[in-house]
Amino acid sequence: MLLIPCPYCGERPEIEFSYGGEAHIARPQNPASLSDTQWAEFLFMRGNQKGAFRERWIHTHGCRRWFNMLRDTTSHEIYAVYKIGAPKPPAPGEKPAAAKKPATRARKGASK
Amino acid sequence: MTGSMRLPGGGRIDRSRPLKFTFNGKGYTGYEGDTLASALIANGVHLIARSMKYHRPRGLMTAGSDEPNGMVQLATGARTEPNIKATQIPLYDGLEASSVNVFPSVETDIGAVNGLLSPFMTAGFYYKTFMPSQLFWDKVAEPIIRKAAGFGKAPTEPDPDVYDHKHVHCDLMVVGAGPAGLSAARAAAATGARVILADEQAEFGGSLLTLHREIDGKPSAEWVGSVVSELSGHDEVTLLRRTTVTGLYDQNYLVALEQKIDDLTPSSPANPRMRVWHIRAKEVILATGSHERPLVFADNDRPGTMLASAALTYMNRYGALPCNKPVVVTNNDWAYETARTFKAHGAEVTVVDTRKTVPEDLGTEMAHLGIEVLADSTVTGVSGKHRVKGVSVAAKNADGSGIAGVSHSIDADGLIVSGGYSAAVHLFCHVGGKLSFDDARVSFMPATGRKALACVGGTAAEFGIAAAIDGGAAAGAKAAQAAGFKPGRAGKGVQVADDRADGNVEAAWLLPSGTAPNRSKAKFFVDYQNDTGAADIALAVREGFDSVEHMKRYTLTGFGTDQGKLGNINGLAILAELTGRTIQETGTTTFRPPYTPVTFGALAGRDAGDMLDPIRVTNIHDWHVAHGAEFENVGQWKRPWYYPIDGETMHQAVARECRAARTAVTALDASTLGKIDVTGKDAGVFLDRVYTNMMSTLKVGSVRYGLMLHEDGMVYDDGTVTRLAENRFLVTTTTGGAASVFQHLEDYLQTEWPDLDVYLTSVTEQWATVTVSGPKARMLLERITDMNLDPADFQFMTFREGKVAGLPARVFRISFTGELSYEISVVWHHGKALWEAVMDAGHDFGITPYGTETMHVLRAEKGFIIVGQETDGTLTPYDLGMGWIVSKKKEDFIGKRSLTRPDTVREDRKQLVGLLPEDPGFVVPEGAQLVNNSVKLKDVPHFAPPGLDGAPIYGRKASPVPMLGHVTSSYWSDALGRSFALGLVKGGQARTGDIVYAPLDDRTIAMRIVDPVFYDKEGARRDG
Ligand SMILES: [Zn+2]
């Protein structure tokens, strides 16, 4: 069981949290304009990466806030947690992203 | 053989405290400080158990948690526990134990006939022998194998003991309190670090409890005593004895099981029987030592066969002599210490050394002691059914592949084996540590592991005591520093006399013999607990199961309660030889927690009985209990199910409650309904996005029913939305869905639309709700409120605030029964007062309380769905015939795009229909499958229960019947005077009038597809 550093509450046991799947998959602005294939891509397709992975968590039995986590899916090492809408911290060995304004449409970030 | 094998002196037992115990009903005596195993050996008892598959007589192989054979049924009655290793049971007065896996007794066991059948019980025999016929498996093979293969008996009574859990943090966790662990803990504790030291034994010291050495001029026991007393003096140090770390997990999280009470002392909350420790450590040091390996040769399992280290432990630590005439078989120098000790106690010893040459000094010493050493030799067989009688020995041939000449037999009453030591790397591997095989040490060693995790002493294949102590001290100091403490003074290296760090071990696994294992009648055991032999591994390789993980599963090597601590390395070394790979290339199987078995009671801890799960009750609960309600669990809520009176059956009670709702007046405790307050200037916009229909157009004071979908278009929850004020709505959810709906809404609000000005508050437990329903509901309510109840003024699907029974209340005109209904909500703690006022006021109208079952019948008569009963996450609003609730005007809402996907517009989707059984007196079971033809279940081979027609059905070609769907709700209707049902049928909405069939066990029921609204289609009754 992991000890998860909630960005609002600090380290708390995993049992207080719920998992929310891959992060940074933004809900399309105008679903009606998408083809069936494009919509299915958004709805069903996920990266399922091995290694560093950005994912969503909610502190269900705590502050009830959603946040993002950068975690290694093989070692379970937590590299970073960051608030919804905050810029992505770089994964180990990755260059820091150029500073840009935090997205307003924040679920899973705004970038595709 | 019995009689005292207790040595006249020595050992760490307390001879002034004799303890009486029984084994298989026979009385024996041991001493305080004994284990059950050492006490049995001191009494000359070696035959302890029978093996699982062949029921071979077995004795104690080890003195620790690696014991594969010596498992017993401990204690009796509710406290009985199966499969406890005798080597891990501290002896107590009055202990009762018996052999497992024997019938009628360990000496005369009927199951031993399996040994005669052994040619048919080779690797993979379960798969091969029984797969051709399902019937044979179900009726004949499985019951016999289950009975024959079980280990011990589970208790049939509830566990009377108390267990608890403790969560702690520390700077350093040291696992194992042998020389390395003690030394590591001492070095770290000296810096002020918070240290926890745990060991599975009742006494700290590890190998030093057995090995008599001088450390810096002091006897090793004295060194142990001084370190333990130094550690006890530190406030920040926790010492855990009888505590096994069963698992190491990510982030240095460890789970340990502490045995707090070993005897029959009753446990209590203040003094639990066992405690599970949850430890989070900044640094972890593994000092778990090593396990000695047996050697593989013919009949290497005769009772009296024992590891060299175990024999030494029984003599030195427990003062018990395993045998008088041992043959010691070894591939290393270490076992000579056991030979020497036997000799010192007057035993007649022969050593069979598999190495080409024996080190000169050892040879000279043995000659001087009068111990015969047969170098470059091998064991070819062991005689003696219930106890070793003789050992056949032969010289190896020139290249060591077989024997030279003939075997000769040596009389013996014990066989002591040593194949070298394997580092106990289990915990290291629990967190994905990688191993490398060291050819010089003949052991796997930790290679790449995790951060903040170190292995010392035997765990790192360091077999010398000085190296363990010095390595432990260095690792302890380093860990403390890494945890933020100032490094202490560097300890000087210790001097250990006669350390024997190097055992000159020469790899030996399957010993050469005259006959290959697969041609021999003898068994060459690799995994004792699973009766896996060298021949089984060879068979696995021949049949293509030559990867180590396949071999494990095909032969069951390593599957037992000892988790292959003894046999695994021998098994994979034999596999490596057979496949021409190195041991490194062959690799190990995956090590998984727990290191040793953990009893379920300990895992459950206090989360048992009423504490298993929270129980939620409404403010009116006591009234329901006092009035004889039967309860139903809905999520964590206890809801009244029905209220039987005068011995009514459920069917009678529900019919009466239904009749009251349709003809008079009834009351339901609806407090458990989920309620969410949605506030903010964008609340309307938000609700438009999460419901299929338009909510922003709702007038203040009005109520609207709505459906929520997931993004995939499937119905997820339903409920009502009431506009309390311009920027304030009250949303209700299903009782079971309240928490997940709330989380679903928070998700979108926080992550998708954080720009919206909306605040969500769960108010489920702020409002108690009483639903008054029935044609006389208004007459009742008039008696306890001044509100204008005229239906022209207080209309259906509107809401008012006012006073009911003198209590501030919200009254909603919502109906889930189809009758005139008022849902009255008051502050939670007024719930019971309101309920009682309603009951009083309704007395002369014959007011009837009703429960969830009646609620379900009444709503089904009206064709109202229950999310989770009619739906299962695969149905769109259109599938439910609820297209009317999907807004065509809104550009977007959650799930809208998915409603035009090719799959969601298929015409043959399962759709909700009404179903009327042709036999109006028969209530079809919910869940019944629906098909097109009147087939009888027993005529469909695919469904025929095995044995019904007397023929095996496995492998017979099934002729599947196309499945149309199933019955979701099915009841007796008092109002209709007949049975009725709701169900899902492929393309059902276009099939009104058709007949479909529900094939049941004993009959097939024809049902006609009808409109799902059965009662008051016009909705004439809702205004009373
Ligand atoms: Zn939090």
Largest sheet of chain A: 4 strands, antiparallel
CATH level-3 fold name of the domain at 163-290 and 423-497 in chain B: FAD/NAD(P)-binding domain
Intertermini distance of chain A: 31 Å
Largest sheet of chain B: 7 strands, mixed
Average pLDDT metric of chain B: 92
CATH topology of chain A: Folate-binding fold
**Which CATH class of the domain at 163-290 and 423-497 in chain B?**
Alpha Beta
CATH architecture of chain A: 2-Layer Sandwich
- How do the strands line up in the largest sheet of chain A? 3-4-5-6
The end-to-end distance of chain B, rounded to whole angstroms, is 91 Å
Superfamily (CATH H level) name of chain A: Folate-binding superfamily
Q: What's the shape of chain B?
A: elongated
Small-molecule components bound: zinc ion
Topology summary:
The complex is a heterodimer of chains A (112) and B (1024).
Chain A: E1 3-6, E2 10-13, E3 18-22, H1 36-44, E4 52-58, E5 66-72, E6 78-83
Antiparallel strand pairs in A: 1-2, 3-4, 4-5, 5-6
Chain B: E1 14-23, E2 26-32, H1 36-42, E3 49-50, E4 57-58, E5 71-74, E6 81-85, E7 95-99, H2 113-116, H3 125-130, H4 134-149, E8 163-175, H5 179-189, E9 195-198, E10 214-215, E11 218-219, H6 220-232, E12 237-240, E13 243-249, E14 253-259, E15 274-286, E16 290-292, E17 305-307, H7 308-316, E18 326-330, H8 335-344, E19 350-353, H9 360-369, E20 372-374, E21 377-383, E22 390-396, E23 403-411, E24 414-418, E25 421-423, H10 426-430, E26 435-438, E27 443-446, E28 453-455, H11 465-482, E29 496-497, E30 525-527, E31 532-533, H12 534-542, H13 548-555, H14 568-579, H15 583-586, H16 600-604, H17 621-626, E32 630-634, E33 637-642, H18 650-663, E34 666-669, E35 674-679, H19 683-690, E36 703-709, E37 715-725, E38 728-733, H20 738-752, E39 759-762, E40 767-773, H21 777-782, E41 799-804, E42 807-812, E43 821-827, H22 831-841, E44 848-849, H23 852-861, E45 910-917, E46 929-930, E47 965-973, E48 978-986, E49 995-999, E50 1004-1010
Parallel strand pairs in B: 1-7, 8-9, 8-15, 9-12, 15-28, 17-24, 18-19, 18-24, 19-20, 34-44
Antiparallel strand pairs in B: 1-2, 3-4, 5-6, 5-7, 10-11, 10-29, 13-14, 14-15, 16-25, 21-22, 22-23, 26-27, 30-31, 32-33, 34-40, 35-38, 35-39, 36-37, 37-38, 40-43, 41-42, 42-43, 45-48, 45-50, 46-47, 47-48, 49-50
Helix pairs in contact in B: 5-6, 5-11, 7-8, 12-13, 12-14, 18-23
